[in-house]
Amino acid sequence: MAWGQLAVNVPADMHASSVSLLQNGTLTRKIASSTKEPRCPVMNTTLASSGKKLALILVAAASLSGCAGMGSGYDTPTVSVQSFRPVATANGGGLPTFEILLHVVNPNLEPLELAGISYTISLDNRDVINGVGNDLPVIEGYGEGSFTVTAGFNVIAGIQLFRSLMQKDTDSFDYSFEAKLDPGAYKRKIRVSDSGSISLSNK
C-alpha cells in the first residue's frame, strides 16, 4: 500500500493543528489548544465605582472646609443675660411683656453673624412664652455687643397667668429663661439660661 498525503478539514476555530499518519495506518491529529483573550466585563463597573469614590471624596472635602469654624482654632462665643424685667404693654391690657437683655462676646477673628434665636420663658415651672427672632446684630471679631429680646404673652398664656395670680397671695414668680442662638451652618449652637424671682408689679 502506497503512502501519501491526506487532506484533512480542520475546523476554523482550531488555530494551530498538525496532522500525521502513523505507519500502522492510524491517523492521529495533534491539536494545539486555542484561547481567546477575554474581554473585560468589569471595566464599566470599575469606572462607575471610581466615579462614586471620587464623588464621596469631593463631598467629604467640602464638609471639612465647611466645618473649619468647628476646628481647634474656633472658640464658641459666650452669651449672658444682663437683665430680665417685665414692662407695661402699650395697649394697657394688663399683661406685661418681658425684656431680656443679652450680652454676646465673640472670641474669634471672624465676625459672628447670628442667624436667629429661639427661647422659652417659664413662670413657676410652667412654660408660658415660646418665641423666635431673626433680627440680630453682627458681632465683630474679638468684639462684643448687646441686644434686647422682647417677649409677650399670647391669649392662652395670658389666661393661665391670670389664673395663677388669682391663686397666689403675691405677684412674684420664679422664672427661668432658656435660649438657643444659631451662629450659622457648621457651627455649634450657643445656649444660655437664666433664672430667679420676679415681681410682675415692677413695671
Describe the structure.
The chain has a four-stranded antiparallel β-sheet. Strands 3-4-9 form a three-stranded antiparallel β-sheet, with no helix packed on it. It is α+β, with helices and mostly antiparallel strands. It is elongated and about 70 Å long. A hairpin with a 2-residue loop joins strand 6 and strand 7. It is built from two helices and eleven strands; from the N terminus they run E-E-H-E-E-E-E-E-E-E-H-E-E. 18% of the residues lie in helices and 40% in strands. The chain folds into two domains: 31 residues; 122 residues, Immunoglobulins (Immunoglobulin-like, Sandwich), CATH 2.60.40.10. The N terminus is likely disordered.
Mean pLDDT, to the nearest integer, reads: 77
Characterize the largest beta sheet: strand count, sense, and whether it forms a barrel.
4 strands, antiparallel
> What is the CATH superfamily classification of the largest domain?
Immunoglobulins
CATH class of the largest domain: Mainly Beta
Rg: 42 Å
Structural class, from helix and strand content?
Answer: alpha+beta
Spatial shape:
elongated
For the termini, the CA-CA separation is 137 Å
The tally of domains stands at 2
Task: Detail the poorly predicted runs.
Answer: 1-6, 14-35
Spatial order of strands in the largest sheet: 7-6-10-11
**Helix coverage percent of residues?**
10-25%
Percentage of β-strand residues? 35-45%
What order do the helices and strands follow?
A: EEHEEEEEEEHEE
Report the CATH topology name of the largest domain: Immunoglobulin-like
